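User: Second chain of the day. Same drill as before.
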Amino acid sequence: MDSHSITLLPNRNWDLTDWMRATGAESYAQMARVASELGLTNPAARTLDIYSERRIRDWATKGLNDYDVALDIIKILRAIAQKNRSIIFNYGNLALHARIFLKSKAGRPEWDTPSQDQIWEICKVASGLNNEIETELGNYDRFLDLRTRVRPAIPWRLYGREQATKQVLERIEQHPVTIIASTAGSGKTALAWHTAMIAYQEGLVTDIDWTTDKRQVMDADGQIYIYEDRSLDENEIIKSIAARFGWDDVLSKPPDKWVGACADHLRKVRHLIVVDNLETVSDQKAVVNMLQDMLTPLGSRAPIASRALITSRVDVESPEPARLDIGGLEPEGSKQYILDLQTRWNISNPLSAEEAVHLAEATRHNPLFIQIALRRYETGNTLEQITSDLNTGENFKAFRTLFEPLIMDLTPSAMAIAAFAALKTWRTGSGTISRSELRHHWQAFCQSKNILPQPEQQEEKFSEDLLSLVRKRIMNSIPSATQNQSLYAFHPLIQAYFLPKVRRSDL
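Assistant: Same format as last time:
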């Protein structure tokens, strides 16, 4: 992580200079020039240089004192952010960042939150693209505030998830709790958001709440953004539900009564509770069990009322929830995603359709890795070099950021299993390794470190280590006729993460 740039997201302590730096504005002169290009004028101004370099410099020092001028400054900053592909005022963040800007040191704490019409106007002036306006505001105006909780910002459309969307909807309809499980960067959050919107549009649910424990987001340039939020737990989820749906009576009760009071409400309505990024929650099982208890109908014939949708990189030790494991995007969708990204990013030497297919396959159709790889292509890397690095784990610092958290609490013997399996499957090209091979290597490693358990405990300890790898989706189990013949496979991107560590003897 130390090789990445780390940035705290906007807050009310930022002044105009901080906002300029975050959007990539190079100077006050550039701000004035962009204002002119956007055709910004202020009818109330008595001078013609309302957005001159001198005035913008003064505002950076003293702060803004005119609300309408502040909205124009947001238009200028957004236009610059779009050019630089900064997330500030961009993608799905406009409404949230505009609200923070107006109440930050750049503006005035007493200023009102911008209206939806004002946000619409900023979109129109700063982008001039109808599809970009639709990206920012979406088709569901009532969830505009909810969109600001989604991290990373929601993609402008969902690519390559037609089948997965149907499967999630089926599970939501039939089960009180559904978990979308997959590796990092696979688009679990985007799938959850778009599916939730469809469930609302089709009348399956009548309202939605969204909570997340995602406090770190990486963009296509390797930039890491830190959200200074509280960690998510059962109480925080209850607080969010009560606030979202206006159930003040829930929080007026003692905390040990919150779950029961919230359950009483949820069983009378058809709402959807989304919990994103469960893997970083300290007690994952407690959250799942709480939602299961609140949402399961009281009688065997009672219909399901409200539901929950969870995203997670790790498996949860609970047999109750319905689960959907997703892989990469559907091939045609990932190809179209690459072609559309090139247009959106104005890449001067775009990949052909055939090359887009090649890149999609090299990234295993993982949408975040598609973005990172395409960004590297744009900055001068060849397609061959990118493919080689993806296969070997070299020169892709994103591997560390995305997959390092998975190994933080593994035992040394579990790490040894993973390292051996990564190297063995890469060398043989088979893609799978047997349980008996893993057991043999685990025993040899434990013996070499003088940590081999007593014979009667060895099978239990080995199974615990192996299960920890499966739960974290580092390895996937492939069922077979007998236990010892069971096969295990690596996701290719996780395998690529382990390979450089094995070569450097970091494991």
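Confidence is low (pLDDT under 50) at residues 1-6, 43-48, 128-140.

User: Great, on to the next one.
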